[in-house]
């Protein structure tokens, strides 16, 4: 059988650009790789696996002959076009939030529930939110051994999670404030010094600041990103009654989300046991020697594929509970890489 044809929808976007880089370093399971984007990007030439590929305009015909279509586009675009791709015979692997909680669409992290890719009534598979995904390799590994029961998470989310506009906004604010040593003091009014917030994807200055908000307002004061952590964790791990509470915070980091995790298990677990179990997980890197200043930070993680974990501690006053600090590149593992790994599972199924 010939190798399957892959389409990358949104190839010119922030995540799509990372996807093309990832595909160039992944196993050679694809035949043609077709690049698709909005009509205004059609005709651009992008480099994939050492070859120049011309971008096609998004249309129903663009999916003819495609076996797997990866979508790295906004929710509304996926909602319209992923069913079109599926109707034309492709398995749609969607990185947006359009289908994550659809009961007929599996929500997949290969380290946790790879088998779920085969149950896809709509021929669509969803990729989780990058904040949820930052924790899943670690939590899935520990859950299989000790049985996760409760999760409290505080995220420290990079500005690129808001798209290219998020990163540009941080750079613009830093440039506006550079050299002003009064910033952050009583004498330095950050709000007046940064560009107009009406043009920002964030509700407050992000340079020299943190913003305890990510997403849109939901009932009872919750942010949409916080509810995604709860709902998606339950679905991925297959724990319908998992107790979850999350607080999502945007921080002045360009790329790589971090999460402070408080995880309670059904079975007793020691720090040493957790380190051993996590060290054996193929996509997890343990950096955990605080006495030597060893723990993961975004600066260590950006541009890499694994999930990194450190600061592993037995929670004070909480039995069977671990405290951890987890980091993952939100544009790679948090979005593009996981989508590529899902697509590769489908490719293996089609080949087998």
TrEMBL record:
GO terms for biological process: 'de novo' L-methionine biosynthetic process; diaminopimelate biosynthetic process; isoleucine biosynthetic process; lysine biosynthetic process via diaminopimelate; threonine biosynthetic process. NADP(+) binds at residues 12-15, 40-41, 160-161, 330. The active site is at residues 130, 257. Substrate binds at residues 157, 250. It is an enzyme of class 1 (oxidoreductase). Phosphate binds at residue 100. Keywords: Amino-acid biosynthesis, Diaminopimelate biosynthesis, Lysine biosynthesis, Methionine biosynthesis, NADP, Oxidoreductase, Threonine biosynthesis. It comes from the Bacteria. It catalyses: L-aspartate 4-semialdehyde + phosphate + NADP(+) = 4-phospho-L-aspartate + NADPH + H(+). Its EC number is 1.2.1.11. Residues 5-120 form the Semialdehyde dehydrogenase NAD-binding domain. The keyword Amino-acid biosynthesis applies. GO terms for molecular function: aspartate-semialdehyde dehydrogenase activity; NAD binding; NADP binding; protein dimerization activity. Pfam families: Semialdhyde_dh, Semialdhyde_dhC. Pathway: Amino-acid biosynthesis; L-threonine biosynthesis; L-threonine from L-aspartate: step 2/5; Amino-acid biosynthesis; L-lysine biosynthesis via DAP pathway; (S)-tetrahydrodipicolinate from L-aspartate: step 2/4; Amino-acid biosynthesis; L-methionine biosynthesis via de novo pathway; L-homoserine from L-aspartate: step 2/3. Catalyzes the NADPH-dependent formation of L-aspartate-semialdehyde (L-ASA) by the reductive dephosphorylation of L-aspartyl-4-phosphate. Belongs to the aspartate-semialdehyde dehydrogenase family. Homodimer. This is Aspartate-semialdehyde dehydrogenase.
